[in-house]
Amino acid sequence: MADNFATHAQSLTSPASRHQVVVPNDAADFDPLPRALYANSSGTAVLRDKAGTEVAYEVVVGQVLPVRAVRVMATGTTAELIAWE
Fold first, then answer.
1. pTM to 2 decimal places
2. Which of 12, 29, 46, 79 is the most buried (most CB within 10 A)?
């Protein structure tokens, strides 16, 4: 399949090349890390970053979180999220 954008660098503002439904987990990190998260429903998203800091975000459906979270915590997360790579 032809990819007219194969030579363009990926960034937080470029389209994702892969996506997956996030299954919140208090014990497992993403592999691979996503470039951003998309809120498929409104609620709370508790994210852990590379430093181990956890922050709860109140998100609305359609919101994009341009953060490279290493984990979405099951405890406290009520929003349904999609990971973009």
1. 0.86
2. 79
CA distance 81 to 46: 11
DSSP 53-85: -EEEEEE-TT-EE----SEE-STT--S-EEEE-
Q: How far apart (Å, rounded) are the C-alpha atoms in residues 39 and 61?
A: 5
CA distances from 76 to 24, 42, 47, 58 (A): 10, 13, 10, 11
DSSP 11: -
| Tokens (6 digits) for 66 | 């341009």
SS3 of residue 5 by DSSP: coil
Q: For the chain, give every domain's residue range.
A: 19-84
